[in-house]
Amino acid sequence: MKYRSSRGLFAARLPAVLMGSILAMVCVVGAPASHAANAKKAAGWKLPRTAEGKPDLQGNWTNATLTQLERSAEFGDRKTLTAEEAQKIEGYAAKHVEDNAKPTDPKLGIEDLPKDCGYGFTGTNCGYNNFWVDRGTQVIRIDGQPRSSIITEPANGRIPSMTPAAAKEASARVAAFRKGAGPVDGPEIRSLGERCLTSFGSSAGPPMLPLMYNNTYSIVQTKDTVMILVEMIHDARVVRIDGTHAPSNVKKWYGDSIGRWEGDTLVVETTNFHPHQTFRGLGPDRKVTERFTRISADQILYQFKVEDPGLSQPFAGELPLNATPDLMYEYACHEGNYALPGILAGAREEEKQAAGKAVKQNEADNDKGEE
Q1: Mind giving me the DSSP string for 119-145?
Q2: Against a cut of 0.90, is the pTM above it?
Q3: Which of 46, 196, 213, 364 is the 20 to 30 Å CA partner of 247?
Q4: Mean pLDDT of 317-344
Q5: If 0-12 CB within 10 Å is exposed, 13-18 middle and 19+ buried, where does residue 175 land?
Q6: Which residues are CB-contacts of 127 (< 8 A; sequence separation ≥ 6)?
Q7: pLDDT score, position 201
């Protein structure tokens, strides 16, 4: 049996089959099937429905993928990759896993460890080994076509620029938040993820986007609600079906989500974001529209559109949510319990030492002046 573990909780995998289980799990979880492939293998598959007759989206799903959110400039406006380009990306990932699965020589010191561990991580940020990482093993494939980015609109597959006014407002918002305070003056200045309040990046969303690990979502439906439990940090989104949005002055973590059924697609509109939960500099006035369409026994097509008055234009994207048999354990985030007090205590000690040096320097200067 394979067990899925969260980074904040001691893993429950058997050492004897550790890497084999991880690689097997990643192959199952990270391989997005195409619509065409699903249609072929799911001949006779019938869309499951709830007691109310709505499409059944329940279960555990993952969006782990090697496809980047934004398209690399080298691909221009090409939404799809060639077979060779997809193989290159997937081959690099497989080699990366193989290389990093090798045991570390216990005689090595910290200065001997890798300075560049791939995927943009260097130095001390190389602390995550293969035990924790689950990026998937394949790029996204939609209708059998390997995708060059999650973002599909605009044509270049990149998040549009902010308007000059919005960029200025975003800078002012950050400055006001940190007014008179340094990055280690108190817990309120640290990131939401460090404080164990919300997920890193936009894992919980919306939009719900993959990270380097903990990309599982558990969906539970009732007649009036759809709950999405997010593995990263323990976030839970509750979508109210056919409800109305809270007053605009009521801001919520992950926003205020209202759902409706359009045929067999669940459409979710989210507004009223908490001002501290930004997305790429965008403030609380954005609106995110998501579409969940179950297209096979083991896949949901997830689509999203982000609109914000601060963007030069909206942007949209899509990726599959793939069924996984793995269990999802409590994340049990410990950063806020241990790491954060350590960061702040370290900063206070540095300040104490700096103050002591300043006193000694003043005394030395005074003695020299008296001479």
Answers
A1: TT-BGGGGG--TTT----SS--EETTE
A2: no
A3: 196
A4: 86
A5: exposed
A6: none
A7: 86
